[in-house]
Amino acid sequence: MANAQVLFETNRLKLREFNGNDAEGLFQLNLAPEVQRFTGDMPFNSVDEARSFINDYSHYQDYGYGRWAVLLKETNEFVGWCGLKYIPEFNDVDLGYRILRKFWGQGIATEASVGSLKHGFQQLKMDKIVGRAHAENLASIKVMAKTGMWFEKAMEYDIGPTLQYAMSKQKFPS
Question: Which residues, by range, are in coiled-coil regions (predicted)?
Fold first, then answer.
């Protein structure tokens, strides 16, 4: 598990399945209040708890995709995660991302998101991908808009008032 294969690359990033080496990065990511503010997720209590999450993460086996570790190409440094998640209650595929605070403002979430959309449409043959963000999470909403996703609807979700954006295979620039 330590050397998970790179699924795809962007100009500056590599995305791959999580492995045990990502436990410290996931722990730090979930520890940051500014990263967790709009997620509704509880922080991990330890690096071991983050490692257990990775070991128990079954989306790759269950659906053939999931959230992926995002690494800088030049240094292999863990910068966060991005990827696709099947949401059974809505029967849709959700684009999600979280980036360590020190990498904010560099376009990494947008770059990783565009790569994930491309992978979803071209490799995984998906027809539609949605993204959801708390209505006050302006940075995340901006990322979705920059990817070319369009506003689809306002809704209530587990994180509170939520805006849903969408992208279809037909509208995705190839």
Answer: none
Quote the DSSP letter at residue 89: T
Classify residue 1: in a domain, yes or no.
Answer: no
Give the percent of the chain with pLDDT over 90: 82
The domain total for the chain is 1
Rounded Cα distance between 37 and 135, Å, is: 12
Residues spanned by the domain of 44:
6-168
Query: Model confidence over 76-116: pLDDT tens digits?
Result: 999 999 999 999 999 999 999 999 999 999 999 999 999 99
Cα–Cα separations (whole angstroms), residue 148 to 103, 139, 153, 164: 22, 15, 15, 13
The CATH number of whichever domain residue 51 belongs to comes to 3.40.630.30
